[in-house]
Every structure is written in C-alpha cells, then in structure tokens.
C-alpha cells in the first residue's frame, strides 16, 4: 500500500 | 476596521462549503490588499490557501491589519441564512473579537444581520515555494469532479500520469481497476462557454494522491475550470480562479509514497 506523506516534509514553517 | 462588501454572498458560501470538510477553524488575515487564509487539515496532508483581492469586492476598506479567527461550523450556520443573490457586507472592528454579517436582497427589501464571536487560533503558517511544476493541466471543473466521483468507488489512491499527449487518472482497487484518459480538446458547454482541456508537460510525471482529498477538492461550483499542477514527489496544487479578479482558492495535497 502507498504511504501518505505529510506537507511538513515539503514546506517549511514560515 | 474591516469593511468589505461582496455583490454575491454565494461566493463566500461556496468557498466555505468547499473547505469546511478539511478545516474546522482558521484565521482570516485581512489587510488593505485583501483577505488571506492559510490552513492545513489536522493530519497535515492538505493545505487550503485562499486569497481574496480587495479589488474583487464591491467595496473594501481595511485600515489596519486584522486577524479574524473563525470557526467554520459557526460560519456555515451564518452563511446558510443568505440567499444566493443576496449581497454580503462583512464588518469587524480592530479588536477582532466579533465579525458582523449583513445580507441584503437584490431589491433591498430584506436585510438580515448576524454577529459572530471570533476566536484566537494559534496557527502555524508554512512558507510555500513558488514552484514551476512539470505538468499543468487545465480542465473543466465539472469533468474533474466527475472523474474523482467515478474513480473514488474503486480505491483509495488516485494515480495521475501525464505525457505530452494525454493525462491518465487511474485507480487500482482490490477487485477492480479503473481509469480515465483525457486528451487536449475544446468543447462548448450548455452556457455556450468554451471549456477546454489543456495539458502542458515539461517532463512526464506520475503521482499518487489520496482519493478522499481529491474528491473533496474537486468542486465544480467554485469556478468553471480547475488547474492541476503536478510534479513527481512534490505536493500537487489544485487551483480555482474566481471571476472578476476576486482571487484564488488553492489546495495543496502531499503525495503518497511507497
């Protein structure tokens, strides 16, 4: 099954 | 103080309807250029970015930056009371603890007013890089909605792959598989508007995305067309542009990996 990634790994905190 | 008047309350109604299943509360950041909202779902899988330009309002004034912390369940209740062709005037003073809504019928013979308590929301903002995606697909929002609805019955993961000739939406379930392939075209819809599918590909791309979120983000009432921006291993962007320069509603969705 595919694993759902989180946005935190792509976008940094502003 | 903030004061903004939208010709159609339905505009805000549709926006809230489209995001309320993803976010339960969020800050509306208001300044003289307009209103911005950025919020992730609780699982940090999807992000909603709304930008409403002051120019798209019939009247707009905001003399000081103000943050309105809004509960979407409460907002939905208020907006339900607006008829689709009512105008909407939003008002908040600098304290940012209440938001006032006035709905007025087109003929001006019915005015209703609602006051909503605001909340303090400790929101975490992300900086979203301005990415030049490998694939840009522009298509009818009704078509995108139909594809998501049809394919959602077959599995939890949508695979979208695009090359220069076509884009393929596919899903593989436990017992069956389904796919829809779109090629660039131009058709006339029932309102006699041109609805085209355009596919711009710099590099062939193949992404896996959550069907549940895609189905939520496929919304034909927001705008006639939708733009999908894709790239391998990068969150996809689903974008609706509102008419009359009012702004955009963007959904970012993190990909699924192996």
Task: Give the neighbour order of strands across the main sheet of chain B.
Answer: 6-2-3-4-20-19-18-11-16-15
Query: What radius of gyration of chain B results from the CA coordinates?
Result: 19 Å
What about the largest sheet of chain A? none
Which class do the helix and strand fractions of chain B yield? alpha+beta
The Cα radius of gyration of chain A reads: 10 Å
Distance between the termini of chain A: 32 Å
Q: Segments of chain B where pLDDT lies below 50 for 5+ residues?
A: none
Tally of DSSP β-strands of chain A? 2
Describe the structure concisely.
The complex is a heterodimer of chains A (14) and B (258). Chain A is mainly β.
Report on this structure.
The complex is a heterodimer of chains A (14) and B (258). Chain A has 14 residues and is mostly beta strands. Chain A has no helices and two strands. Chain A starts with a strand and ends with a strand. Chain B has a ten-stranded antiparallel beta sheet. In chain B, strands 5-1-7-8-9 form a five-stranded antiparallel beta sheet, covered by helices on one side. In chain B, helix 3 runs antiparallel to helix 4. At the A-B interface, strand 1 and strand 2 of A face strand 10 and strand 21 of B.
Strand and helix map with partners:
The complex is a heterodimer of chains A (14) and B (258).
Chain A: E1 3-4, E2 12-13
Chain B: E1 2-6, H1 9-19, E2 25-31, E3 34-40, E4 46-53, E5 59-62, E6 66-71, H2 72-80, E7 87-92, E8 98-104, E9 111-117, E10 126-127, E11 135-140, H3 141-152, E12 157-162, E13 167-172, E14 177-182, E15 185-188, E16 194-201, E17 205-210, H4 211-217, E18 225-230, E19 236-242, E20 247-253, E21 256-257
Antiparallel strand pairs in B: 1-5, 1-7, 2-3, 2-6, 3-4, 4-20, 7-8, 8-9, 11-16, 11-18, 12-13, 12-17, 13-14, 15-16, 18-19, 19-20
């Amino acid at each position: 099954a595919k694993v759902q990634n989180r946005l935190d790994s792509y976008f940094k905190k502003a | 103080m903030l004061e903004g008047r939208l010709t159609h309350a339905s505009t805000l109604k549709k926006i809230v309807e489209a995001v309320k299943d993803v976010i339960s509360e969020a800050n509306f950041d208001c300044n003289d250029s307009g209103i911005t909202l950025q919020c992730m779902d609780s699982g940090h899988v999807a992000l909603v970015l709304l930008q409403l330009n002051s120019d798209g309002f019939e009247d707009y004034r905001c003399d000081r930056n103000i943050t309105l912390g809004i509960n979407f369940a409460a907002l939905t209740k208020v907006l339900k009371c607006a008829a689709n062709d009512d105008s909407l005037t939003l008002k908040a003073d600098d304290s940012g603890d209440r938001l006032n809504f006035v709905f007025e019928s087109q003929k001006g013979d019915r005015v209703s007013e609602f006051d909503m308590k605001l909340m303090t929301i400790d929101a975490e903002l992300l900086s979203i890089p301005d990415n030049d995606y490998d694939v840009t697909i522009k298509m009818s929002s009704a078509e995108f909605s139909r594809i998501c609805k049809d394919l959602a019955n077959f599995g939890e993961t949508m695979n979208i792959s695009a090359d220069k000739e076509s884009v393929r939406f596919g899903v593989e379930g436990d017992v069956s598989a389904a796919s829809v392939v779109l090629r660039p075209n131009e058709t006339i819809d029932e309102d006699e508007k041109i609805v085209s599918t355009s596919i711009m590909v710099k590099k062939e791309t193949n992404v896996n995305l959550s069907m549940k979120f895609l189905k939520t983000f496929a919304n034909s009432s927001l705008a006639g067309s939708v733009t999908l921006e894709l790239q391998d291993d990068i969150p996809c962007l689903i974008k609706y542009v509102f008419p009359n320069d009012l702004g955009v509603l963007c959904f970012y969705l993190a990909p699924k990996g192996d």
